[in-house]
Write a structure and sequence with these properties.
By secondary structure, the protein is mostly helical. It folds into 3 domains: 6-105, Fumarase/aspartase (N-terminal domain) (Fumarase C, Chain B, domain 1, Orthogonal Bundle); 110-148 and 164-197 and 227-353, Fumarase/aspartase (Central domain) (Fumarase C, Chain A, domain 2); 358-457, Orthogonal Bundle (Ribonucleotide Reductase Protein R1, domain 1). Helices cover 60% and strands 5% of the residues. The chain has 18 helices and 6 strands. The chain has helices spanning 15-21, 31-47, 53-71, 84-96, 109-145, 165-190, 209-215, 225-230, 233-260, 287-310, 324-347, 353-362, 367-376, 381-398, 407-411, 421-424, 427-432, 442-457, and strands at residues 150-155, 158-164, 192-193, 220-221, 267-268, 350-351. The strands form 3 sheets. Strands 1-2 form a two-stranded antiparallel ribbon. A two-stranded parallel ribbon has the order 3-4. Strands 5-6 form a two-stranded antiparallel sheet. Strand 3, helix 7 and strand 4 (220-221) form a beta-alpha-beta unit. Helix 2 (31-47) packs antiparallel against helix 3 (53-71), helix 2 (31-47) packs across helix 7 and helix 6 (165-190) runs parallel beside helix 18 (442-457). The longest helix is centred in the first third of the chain and has 37 residues, at 109-145. The structure holds arginine. InterPro entries: Arg_succ_lyase_C, Argininosuccinate_lyase, Fumarase/histidase_N, Fumarate_lyase_CS, Fumarate_lyase_fam, Fumarate_lyase_N, L-Aspartase-like. It is an enzyme of class 4 (lyase). It catalyses: 2-(N(omega)-L-arginino)succinate = fumarate + L-arginine. Residues 364-431 form the Argininosuccinate lyase C-terminal domain.
C-alpha cells in the first residue's frame, strides 16, 4: 500500500529511511490503546455530525476486527507503514475504502500518540502499583512472624545495635509505601486527555473533547495543545519514580546477597529461586537478587537517556519523541519483573534465626546499653563509653561475648557493675526497651504491621 502521507512526494522513501524511521518494530503493544482512542474519536466525529453515522459504525466495526486480528497474531504489520497508527488506519482503508479514510479527520498522529502513551502509562502504573503492593504485603507478613527475631542492626556494615528482623524489613516497607504514593501522585497528574490538540494547534472542526475524555475515563483535558503534543513529563516522572524504587529494590537485593553469603548465613534461599555454579558444586548463587541489583542500573540509565532526549527540543512535536518508547517500555517490563521476582524470592526464603542471634552477640551490639547502664549509676556518658570500649576489647581478645564475661571481670573495669547488668544486656530486653514510635520493640513493630495491614486493605 502507498504511504498515507506521500501526496507531495515525487518518489518513494528509501528502504533505509523506512527502516530508520519506523517505530512499528517496538510499539506494537500500543495497539489496544490506539484502537480504543480511534473508536471513541470516530464516535465523537459522528455525534458532532462531522462524519456520517454509517461511516462511523463501519469504522468501529473495522477497528474491532483489526483488534482481534492483532490480538490473535494474525495481522502482518508493515514496516513501510511506519508506526502502529498508520498500520491500523491502513487496515481500515484496505477493507473499507473511502470510509476508512474518514477516521483521521480532526486528528494528527501527534495528539494520537500522546493519547496512546497516556492510556498505556495509566494502565502500567496501576499494574506496577499492584505488584509493589504484593511485595509490601510479603515483607509485612514476614515481619509479622519475626517481631522477636533478634538480628544485628548495621551502620557502616558493622554490627551496631540489636534490632529485629521485623524492624529491618519494615524499614523497606516504608520506602516501598512512599514509592506507591509517588506513583499515585504521578497518576493523578498524568490523567489528562490530549486528543483534540491536533498536530500542535488544535483543529477547526467542531469536535467535542469532553466526550472523548469521558469515554476514555480521563480526569481532565490537556490545557494547551502545544504542550499536549510535546509533553513527556509523565514518562520522566514515572521513570524517575521507578528509578528510586529500583534503588530501594537494589539495596534490599544487596542485603539478601550479603545475608546469603556463607559467612553471614542469615537467609536460606529456596532452590527454585537460586542457581548453581557450572564448576563449583558447593555453590548456591543468589542470581535473582543480583539481577534485581543489576537491572536497577539499566532503569537509572533509561531515565537519564529520556531526559537527554527531551533536553533542548523545540516545541512542539519532533521525531526525537519517538525515542521515548523503547526505554519506557523496557523500564516498565524490567521493573515489573524485578518486583515480582523479589517478592517471590522473599516469600520463599527462610531466615536462620539462631545464626542472626549469635551474630548479634558476637558483634558486641549490647555495648551502647551497657554504657547507658553505667550512666544510670551516675557516671558521665563519655567515661562509660571509654570503660565499655575497654571491656569490648578484652572480650574480643578472649574470644568471648559480653554476656559470657563474669561479674568479676566486669568489676575490674568498674565497681558499679552488679549482677543486674546481665538483664540489661539481654538482647530481647534491649530491643524491647526501645518502644518509641518507629522503634524496634516487638509491640511497636507488631502495631506497625497492623497499620500496614490496614494500609494494604485500603489499596
Ligand atoms: N511513531 C511516532 C512517535 O512515536 C508517532 C507520531 C508521528 N508523528 C509525526 N508527525 N511523524 O512519536
Amino acid at each position: 500500500m502507498e504511504k498515507l502521507w506521500n501526496g507531495r512526494f515525487a518518489k518513494d522513501t528509501s528502504k533505509e529511511t523506512d527502516l530508520f524511521n519506523a517505530s512499528i518494530g517496538f510499539e506494537q503493544r500500543l495497539y489496544p490503546y490506539d484502537i480504543l482512542g480511534s473508536y471513541y474519536h470516530v464516535q465523537m466525529l459522528a455525534n458532532q455530525n462531522i462524519i456520517d453515522d454509517s461511516d462511523a459504525a463501519a469504522i468501529q466495526d473495522g477497528l474491532k476486527k483489526v483488534y482481534h486480528l492483532i490480538k490473535s497474531d494474525s495481522y502482518t504489520f508493515k514496516l513501510s507503514l511506519e508506526d502502529i497508527h498508520m498500520n491500523i488506519e491502513a487496515y481500515l482503508i484496505d477493507t473499507l475504502g473511502e470510509t476508512g479514510k474518514r477516521l483521521h479527520t480532526g486528528r494528527s498522529r501527534n495528539d494520537q500518540v500522546a493519547l496512546d502513551m497516556r492510556l498505556y502509562a495509566k494502565d502500567v502504573v496501576i499494574d506496577q502499583i499492584k505488584k509493589l503492593t504484593a511485595l509490601i504485603e510479603t515483607l509485612n507478613a514476614i515481619a509479622k512472624v519475626h517481631t522477636k527475631t533478634i538480628m544485628p542492626g548495621f551502620t557502616h556494615l558493622q554490627q551496631a545495635q540489636p534490632i529485629t528482623l521485623a524492624h529491618h524489613l519494615l524499614a523497606y516497607v516504608e520506602k516501598f509505601k512512599r514509592d506507591t504514593s509517588r506513583l499515585f501522585d504521578i497518576y493523578a497528574r498524568l490523567d489528562e486527555m490530549p486528543l483534540g490538540s491536533g498536530a500542535l494547534a488544535s483543529t477547526s472542526y467542531p469536535i467535542n473533547r469532553d466526550f472523548v475524555k469521558d469515554a476514555l475515563v480521563f480526569d481532565r483535558l490537556t490545557a494547551n495543545s502545544i504542550d499536549a503534543v510535546s509533553d513527556r513529563d509523565y514518562l520522566v516522572e514515572i521513570m524517575a519514580a521507578y528509578a528510586l524504587m529500583a534503588v530501594h529494590m537494589s539495596s534490599l537485593a544487596e542485603e539478601i546477597i550479603i545475608w546469603n553469603s556463607q559467612l553471614f548465613n542469615f537467609i536460606e534461599l529456596d532452590d527454585a529461586y537460586s542457581t548453581g555454579s557450572s564448576i563449583m558444586p558447593q555453590k548456591k548463587n543468589p542470581d535473582i537478587a543480583e539481577l534485581v541489583r543489576g537491572k536497577s542500573g539499566r532503569i537509572i540509565g533509561h531515565l537519564s537517556g529520556m531526559l537527554v532526549t527531551l533536553k533542548g527540543l523545540p516545541l512542539a512535536y519532533n521525531k526525537d519523541l519517538q525515542e521515548d518508547k523503547e526505554s519506557f517500555f523496557d523500564t516498565t517490563d524490567q521493573i515489573g519483573n524485578m518486583l515480582s521476582m523479589l517478592e517471590r524470592l522473599l516469600a520463599t526464603a527462610s531466615f536462620n534465626v539462631e545464626t542472626m542471634y549469635q551474630a548479634t552477640l558476637k558483634g558486641f551490639t549490647e555495648a551502647t546499653d551497657l554504657a547507658d547502664y553505667l550512666v544510670k549509676k551516675g557516671l558521665p556518658f563519655r567515661d562509660c563509653h571509654h570503660i565499655i570500649g575497654a571491656i569490648v576489647k578484652e572480650a574480643s581478645d578472649r574470644g568471648t561475648t559480653l554476656s559470657e564475661m563474669t561479674l568479676d571481670a566486669y568489676k575490674t573495669h568498674s565497681s558499679l557493675f552488679e549482677a543486674d547488668l546481665y538483664d540489661v544486656i539481654d538482647l530481647l530486653a534491649i530491643v524491647s526497651s526501645r518502644r518509641h514510635t518507629g522503634g524496634p520493640a516487638p509491640e511497636v513493630t507488631a502495631a506497625q504491621v497492623g497499620t500496614n495491614e490496614t494500609w494494604l486493605s485500603a489499596q
